Amino acid sequence: MEKKGRKPHVLIVPNTGQGHITPMVQFGKRLVTKGIKVTLVTSVYLSKSMHVDPESSIAIETISDGFDEIGPQKAGVDSKVYFPSFRINGSRTLAELIEKLANNGQPATAIVYDGLLSWALDVAKQYGLLKVAFFTQSCAVNSINYHVNRKLLPLPITGSHVSLPELPPLLPTETSLFLLVYGKTSPPHLQELVSNQFSNMDEADWVLFNTFYKLEEKIVDWMAKLWKVVTVGPTLPSMYLDKRIEDDKDYGIKLFKPKTSDCLNWLNDKPIGSVVYVSFGSVAKLSQEQTEELAWALKGMNCYFLWVVRDSLETKLPNKFIEETSDKGLIVSWCPQLAVLAHESIGCFVTHCGFNSVLEALSLGVPMVAMPQWIDQPTNAKFVEDVWGTGIRVLPDEKDLVERQVLQKAIKDIMEGEKGKVIKKNAMKWKELAKEAIDEGGSSDNNINEFVAALFGSS
Ligand code: UDP
């Protein structure tokens, strides 16, 4: 197959889920501005429900996860069935797609695959393409997962602390291995999925992280001894950071429709720093009891709140809560989170600490109340509080409940207290450093340019 001299063509293959698609697509947008053709490869089912910006510079192609017609949720399958199905069907259909594109005169140069879909590396290898892993979680979290994969951190964790190179000592509950419910061990198949990301990693040509160098300096340097590791984040739209890409104002591909004007009109007449923004991302589900406890915490406080309660979870709110708090609160099923975090009325962000939300808050200088739920979130929350100094963690009691007083104290400490002043100062520092990283000549910008040069060298 004659490849030399063509415009490089990158296939981006994220795991399904907003928090995986967004950063990889945003990275793709940066590549497009540097002369690369980018195609997003997603599941057939998901492609039917995605809201795509009509101006999008990224093409879309589909592969099968085995649930093309009704999707995994309606099919009632859990991750134990889903991920093996995606591996088998995805490998086959990704290979077919690579062949189709080559026959249509648009041969792929590289596969940039989500770490969780490590089978995509094997497909890329089969066709002689550049094999590029992309991680949507932090370097710290991936170091933990790597150590498990190489049996350098045996499970179950028995000691009181986990000590790994270039990471602060972590309590077992602060490692990403305690999935599903905060503080409880995950089922083996999920641990396996997370750790298997590293099984074939030694064959990757590049390992990209949606983080930035100064945020995780020591651990990035440590990982760079293992593989060709580079940081390419934060992947927020350019207009929130370096402003070099004028039409990059928003995440171009969304799985949920935000209530943009409802949120922004409501925020517009609120005083500066007076609103608590609350969101637990696209996946986490608070229990009935925790939802009620959070509701009472917000109702009992002397500040405004904007709370994202996804449609399926609204029934967990206390009876008449929306009517009774309408003078101070707005509840929406999905919001334009970047525009909300960038709004001057926001005083703090009560977050589950999904890594995208954390990066967004860091990049926009918003202090956090960190209320982690599962997967990597407890580790992220530890870093938010103890390493980056941009938030306060709220931890559950022995019944797994973060009590209303604990929540209220953390919010008050940030909005009004002396501690809040220090946290806000740190938040502004990270905001500057995030922008610097992706701006011209910054660490992430340089890394992206190096990657682009390698793509041109391979096409
Ligand atoms: N998000 C949004 N509107 C909302 C809630 C979340 O646009 O109402 C976006 C948020 O900006 C982030 C993503 O959804 O980019 C959530 O990713 P994260 O990694 O924080 O959490 P996950 O959903 O993967 O648990």
UniProtKB/TrEMBL annotation:
Pfam families xref list: UDPGT (PF00201)
GO molecular-function term, one example from the UniProt record: quercetin 7-O-glucosyltransferase activity
Record bears the keyword DNA damage: no
Protein name stated in the entry: Glycosyltransferase
Keywords tagged on the record: Glycosyltransferase, Transferase
Similarity section: Belongs to the UDP-glycosyltransferase family.
The keyword Transferase appears for this protein: yes
Entry's EC annotation: 2.4.1.-
InterPro entries: UDP_glucos_trans, UDP_glycos_trans_CS
Domain of life: Eukaryota
Top-rank EC class of the record's enzyme: transferase
